[in-house]
Amino acid sequence: MERLKDKIAIITGAARGMGESHAREFVAHGAKVILTDLSEDAGRALAEELGENAFFIKHDVTKPEEWVKVVEQAEQKFGPVNVMVNNAGVLGPIAQTANLKEEDYLKVCTINQHAVFFGMKYVIPSMLKAGKGSIVNISSIAGIVANYGFPNLAYVASKFAVRGMTKATAIEYGSKNIRVNSVHPGFINTPMMVEATNEDGGDALVQIPLGRLAEAKEVSNLVVFLASDEASYITGTEHVIDAGMTAQ
């Protein structure tokens, strides 16, 4: 079923992990997708595999001038953008606050928080041309609770910020038929998660009521829903997908 027919989407961090999964599911559901990432070889290979409805652009999400070019190229390739998935992000160093280097804090917040602002800022004019839009900002359970298993102030700060920015922008643009929601995954079986927790999640599994890591596609199913017209009355909300971790 083409749940995303007539959707033109930008997905950041799309070369691997959750971003790759989102891109695959979007194309499978009928969307035309601009994939962006700094990993050029992997991104181009994925776009080629996905076919004519996928197009890759090398993109540093922390640079506003590159956002301008991405939106321009998206419009030239497929038309005005009506879906934005701000997926690119980093975990950053696991460190207690007093030991966290200033430059590491600023780097994490620039990628995870400021880039989401840039994405919304530069895609909204395109959505206004389209007459409607759906922005899906990927946050984390670290944007719901501060204690999720690791001491990581920068990550928590950036993901709480994304949650608030989502709500503020949803209120501003609801009358323009632009919906903005945040997604808050728990522990997902992606390269970033495996690198952070060593191999298969380790002690993280003890904290998960369902007893397993999620597969990226399980998050993608939620993102597809929020991007689709099935979610036409949903905006300004956080959507937790964490196997019950934050219920404890």
Automatic annotation (TrEMBL):
Gene3D superfamilies: NAD(P)-binding Rossmann-like Domain. PROSITE patterns: ADH_SHORT. Keywords: Lipid metabolism, NAD, Oxidoreductase, Steroid metabolism. GO terms for biological process: steroid metabolic process. Belongs to the short-chain dehydrogenases/reductases (SDR) family. GO terms for molecular function: oxidoreductase activity. It comes from Pedobacter cryoconitis. The keyword Transmembrane does not apply. It comes from the Bacteria. This is 3alpha(Or 20beta)-hydroxysteroid dehydrogenase.
